[in-house]
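> run fold Nucleolar complex protein 3 homolog
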Amino acid sequence: MKARRNKKQIPSFRKLLKTSKVKLENKLKNKQFKQQSTLKKYRKEQRKLRQAVKDAVSKRPIPLEDPKGKRPGKRIEREEEEEEEALPLDMMDEDDLQLMKDLGQRASFLTRDLSSSEPVHVKKRKREHVIEKYEKIPRALQTAPEKELIHLLPIKDKSGIIPQTREKPVIDSNQDEEDQEEVELEEEIIEDPVRELTLEEHLTERKKKLQEKKMHIAALASAILSDPESNIKKLKELRSMLMEQDPDVAVTVRKLVIVSLMELFKDITPSYKIRPLTEAEKSTKIRKETQKLREFEEGLVSQYKFYLENLEQMVKDWKQRKLKKSNVISLKAYKGLAEVAVKSLCELLVALPHFNFHNNIIVLIVPLMNDVSKLISEMCCEAVKKLFKQDKLGQASLGVIKVISGFVKGRNYEVRPEMLKTFLCLRIKEIEVKKDTEDINKPKKFMTFKEKRKTLSRMQRKWKKAEEKLERELREAEASESTEKKLKLHTETLNIVFVTYFRILKKAQRSPLLPAVLEGLAKFAHLINVEFFDDLLVVLHTLIESGDLSYQESLHCVQTAFHILSGQGDVLNIDPMKFYTHLYKTLFKLHAGATNEGVEIVLQCLDIMLTKRRKQVSQQRALAFIKRLCTLALHVLPNSSIGILAINRILMHTFPKTDLLLDNESQGSGVFLPELDEPEYCNAQNTALWELHALRRHYHPIVQRFAAHLMAGAPSEGSEALKPELSRR
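> ok
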């Protein structure tokens, strides 16, 4: 036996662990079962007690003097015994007897109706109102409440059909007790009312509360900034203050928290996008430092997401103008909160284009660019412009352009022109692209083994090998984005921009977006595919001829046409004479008074049409434009006059033979026809620039100086030459 006992195996640690787990589970189950059973017992007892109280309420109180015939025999005997022990009635005073009878008739605690809302101690407290209350009670006998019956199937007997019914079971509820407690609480509250504060005290109290909240926000923010990885949980605490419920300081605190969180995210966000971990990565064992970093990244992304959702909700609440149930913030305050939320979104759009949820911010911001509120619209447009200007690679710009294009199409081109004007800030230039492609096409070549053997010694070959190895590693480790990717993104962005522009030219020619479209085409014309040039010029000429455009819009058309022809359009054999004629004809439409809006575009058009295309411009055309510009300089404001005289000076330098306009003698046949709209056939060589004499007596000193300079033939040196600060303009 002993041998057998010794042979018995000692259970392993794992087995012991298993059995202990089972025991623990059983213990836990037993404990839960006991708790449940005691709870059931307690509920049962409570139910019985409530039922007893209900039954007592339903019974009528038995009067002290009942008719003797109705009493049962046993009760009579018992009462007789009691009467012997009690005092005889004839020994009692009449008043005492009456009091006893009243007490007998009055309902005791058990028979009192608990459903009545009035508590017991109210009667004690307010004795004087007894008669009034008594008068208010309706004149009806208290009867037992009718019990609801359930009709069952009838039974058939010899005597006939007997109907069967059963009482409906009463559902227990604590409503009576709860009502009573509520009333008591209300009365207690009424008894000691809070003293009302004066306006000055209220303001002091608010200032004190606000200061406390500010200190709390500052403490949390500085803790997070000092050690973001350890204090990432405090970010949640700070974000919870966005739901501030104190009506005195709610709006101000929420605004402060929005701005604080925005600045915090700008500071603690890493310079890379945080991706979710895969299952394999989660299951692998990692060091404490790595685990801490992962927890920080997860916490940061989730809090950033919730923060953006909160901002979006604030903007939605303002848009829908819905009051919340809590009613802490008024409808007026919604606008202020929404403005701060939009400002924060704009800041994050510009500051964190590389981080998570950037596309979500774009989707929020783009519709607000077309908002009714001018302030919010301008804020969003400025943020988008800023993003375009600083985006070197083009990834973020492409995302914004896609959303804007879809939004404009979805709204059927009924949007603010400012939305399309943001396209002008895109960083896409041909020179950069060309330079980048050259860099791509010339990768550095390493020497082959044969070349090394021919040119280098053994030691030099060894050094060269180590150097090349290092260079390869550096190239792989370099984090700069490849220029190929950049070129691809720029191409895609431009395609979307041109699709938007061409859609508007085709479908919405009377839209207020047209000036922005023409301006954009003028800027990016050198990047348009040559295949589209012919069609585009036809469309532009049709627009000008239609007469639907304003003067400024028609100038944009002319500018766009010449931008197209000055770039890749040089190879095309297109004569833009009709555009020259249009500009010459409409020069006198420039505003002569309050505004100088059109002058700048006119000067740009003249520069690109006459100066940059000097080889394609005839002398007759140049003479006609110089003469008309001098006449125009008499009509406009001084600053416009200076600009026009400056362009005349450039034209006289570009076309030296135009100095014949400074002579009185005419050349060739014919007379100058100022009213003719064709610059080639108006015989401008047969006139003189008499306007310069009038301009020489102009009230503005710089206009006088320019006029005298042009009369002398626009010399570069000598007494009539311009000062350097004027000639550089």
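The mean pLDDT is 78.
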